[in-house]
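dude i think i finally got it to work??
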Amino acid sequence: MLSIVKRIPAGQVATYGDVAAAAGQPRAARAVGNIMRGCSGVGVPCHRVVAAGGLLGGYGGNEHLKRSLLRAEGLIVGTRRIRNFRERRWKPRSAGRSKGPRYDRT
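look at this
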């Protein structure tokens, strides 16, 4: 899952659920939250992973630091929520999906 988080560009965010879905585990949002809580890997922008609806969520107990890092990347962050969440939400490209509708040939 950390490899997915590394792909989130500066100035954008993804939810715990977005990361879980991109990793092929759409029901593992809580697990992503647990991983992010202990995230200390160099080069892993854990501050770019937020709760549903743009809520900040935790950041190893330092929500002030998370808010500051996101603001430094140009996001508009209130006390608990990213105000421009829809515009800044990262949507990873789906690997292996076709571009058009899928039809059964039966």
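The chain has one domain: 2-88.
im so relieved honestly
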